[in-house]
Input
Amino acid sequence: MGMLQNALQNVLAVAVLLGGLIFVHELGHYLVAKALGVKVLSFSIGFGPRLFGFRRGETEYKISILPLGGYVKMAGEDPTAEVAPEDRGRTFLEQAPWKRLAIAAAGPAMNLVFPGVVFTLLLLAQNGDLTPGPVVGSVSPGSPAEAAGLRPGDRIRAVQAPGEGPVAIRWFGELREHVSPHPGAPLTFTVERGGALRPVTIVPATEDDSNVVEKRQRGVIGVSPAYASALAAPAPGVASPLETLDLVTSVAGRPVRHAGELAEAVEAAGCAPVAMEVRRGSGAARAPVALQGVPTCAPDGRSAVLPADPTVAAYLAAVAADGPAAAAGLRRGDLLVAVNGKPVRSFRDLNLLAREFEPGRPAALALGDGRTVRLVPGSQEVKDPFTREAQQRPVLGFLLEDRVGLDLDALVVEQVPFQRGLAEVVRVAHQQLWELVRLTAVGLGKLLTFQLSFKMVGGPLTLFSIAAEAAEQGLGTFLFQMAFISINLGLMNLLPIPVLDGGHIVTAVIEGVTRRRLSLRAREVANVVGLFLVIGLMALAIGNDLLRKFGG
Output
């Protein structure tokens, strides 16, 4: 029963997504044709024989059996057909070029208007939802924020880019938005600490932010809205019952929720040994352990309890027994400090050094205990989910992050509600729409110039998969995917291929410029060529679908 229900839900999701987008597209053609006095004979969702429908006035509205598109049929679209006397002056081909251009462009235009409406509604629905506030929870070691002196608990009130005015920061996401476009540029942050405001200048580091369509960079300062967890490790050379990667839950009876509270509790001990309660082990298997006489100061006076959360340290949380890391002599709890001479201070640093690891090429790993090990990455063959081309991925055999069983939401310093007015919502929705239109246009251009593989083109099975997965994730995700596909359909239809809207637009422009109708023969040849191109594209897309589904 469950499988049948899921199947029906998936079919319904595809029907709503595909049917909705077809309706939106054809509605554009229909409304403009009607407004310009063109006779519309039928409005169909789907092709082929009619399943059901009705007639109202001079137009038949119907659902047809093949759900692979739709159409608005206007009087006189077929140049070879005889026009009824009562339809004279109201046929599509009799209209002035600008009218035919407007009718043809209205479908793709609606495919771009629709996402704007969806994004506006989704943003309005976000009002009242909680999101991390603009308070620093953790600062990445070696980051621009650490160099500038930012600390956990600092509140970012505003950011000012060179040549611009200060912009108030209401939630943490806005901090990312205003830092990301300025890699390498000095930004002035208004920081609140202890009730006092102070300006802090930070130059964001440059990070790769490339996607499958384009290469680009973004600015980062290295802060998070969440505290580091209370994972801890004893300082080197200190004999302690505390073990590396123990999760501290209390110090001297004082509850500990994160690294900040752990540091405060250890400092409050005044270098006296303390009792601790920890959870020891890996992931969900962590078990409570009571510790007595845990040293709080090292011989040099520094803290004997070090943070071990992967956001601020690089302790190995797991080592696969039969992997390259184990073969190199690495163990759980080892502190990684460098890869090929490049410093590693956190999980973030290791991610940025991903290119240092290639299958079969040795990498030198420096450890906190003074050892240097030679790790030879293994290799795992993976297939690109779109092109199905084989790729070799390096296998290291260790992980820095093991947060299973941790309440990550409780680590967020502050939660604040989204609150945007209608004018701001419309502005942000327009920005989101423009960025997706831009990325889609760039991707389409790279496909047509063979800079991207045509194996990335998807067909009905891909659409089915996207709709089904989006439906499972909720209405918001489903509507977003629907809007994204609508943008793709709108831009695809603008391609200057006869039988597509772009072909009609080009024809109208040519006739408007030359002030002369294309010959019947030219139209027939263009339509045949366009039809073959569209059929070829559909065949390619369906072939790619079958390769993804059943290919090796």
Q: What stands out?
A: The two ends are 31 Å apart (CA to CA). The CA atoms of residues 10 and 468 lie 5 Å apart.
